[in-house]
Amino acid sequence: MIETKYYGEFGGSFIPEILVPTFDQLVNAFNAARNDPSFWAEYVDIMSTYSCRPTPLTFAENLTRYFGGPRIYVKREDLNHTGAHKANNVMGQGLLVKRMGKTRVIAETGAGQHGVATATMAAKFGFECTIYMGQVDIERQSPNVFWMERLGAEVIPVKDGTRILKDAINEALRDWSANMDNTHYVLGTACGAHPYPEMVSYFQSIIGKEARKQITEREHRLPSRVYACVGGGSNALGIFSGFLDDPVELVGVEAGGKGLDTGLHASRLASRDAAIGVAQGYKTYFLQDSEGQMRETHSVAAGLDYVGVSPILSNLKEQGRVRFESATDTEVLDAFSLTLKKEGLVPALESAHAFAQAFKEAPDMSREDIIIINQSGRGDKDIFLVADALADPEWRSFIIKKAEEYKNSKK
Length: 411
Ligand SMILES: Cc1ncc(COP(=O)(O)O)c(C=O)c1O
Hints:
The chain is of the alpha/beta class. The chain is 45% helix and 18% strand. It has a six-stranded mixed sheet, with helices on both faces. A four-stranded parallel sheet has the order 7-6-5-8, with helices on both faces. It has a two-stranded antiparallel ribbon with strand order 1-2. α4 packs parallel to α5 (113-125). The longest helix is centred in the middle third of the chain and has 24 residues, at 196-219. Bound molecules: pyridoxal-5'-phosphate (PLP).
């Protein structure tokens, strides 16, 4: 190995021997790109012409009035092409793939957002594309599967294990070991072996750079707190990176699922249920039992439903630099509904975790405070889950009618 990296005791590079040359190649390509100012310029150019950067910072005037506390701003990552911050990472990795001369990309996906983003990037750059997705996630996010296939990607259902994100990652790693000559693995979050945590946060840092500039231009001061949801940790690290050296409180919000005391959640850093371990190439806090077996996780938001978390965030927790909280499914759905009604914003259920925690704390903050909530993605993809959770009768009869039409059609 030419290079590995730890954040405190977390991170590292625990990979099979066979993948070492591929990781070396990736580390070299990433380091060369990072040291070449024209690479970041090329990245910013493609993000502003193909995606929607800089994304706006929206003042949530009605929510601010409603809580009577801090001035609430929302960083609009939902306005990226394909509807989430995932675009920042995949386009960056796509540019690296071009530099490395590879022709095929593979990815894992949970909510499907990263899969759609990768398939989009592959279409744009002309790469062959295979996406691994747990069977459970396929069932709860079929619109995203539909779009990945339309974009020309092959979607492979993963039926091993608990059939969610961690199982999809294992399958993608297996594919990579067999096809590394022409294939790059586009990991979707700031987890995994070095250089992924660093590389993914590097591309996502565009969120924090913009947010810091936007808030200081508008308010002439820094926010008191910044909130972001935490799945693997990439959108949180992206926005937090803009404020890490400032006296700004950073709050990461994990999936509290049905409640921390039920065991049905995905809170690695906000609960006491996780322990330090090594899996999927890196060392971090994992939700595991006393024998090191990964536990089942639960969240209404597929993108937060993961056993591990970025080693960079585990270290920031140990250092006391980021506070970790959790929001339950019920709190998240309430925050989602309130945000729609008050602001006309449609956060992804993942992002609604950050809103939920901010709403819990806003009533106790002063009018002098400013907070920023990172809206990591848009919630259109969640229509089935939200309609079910709200037991919307009209939606239900629409789906039943549509199903009848399919049953009776000749095709
Ligand atoms: C909209 C959205 N937000 C957040 C996440 C969580 O990922 P991360 O913690 O890497 O930002 C996902 C993952 O799929 C997502 O789709």
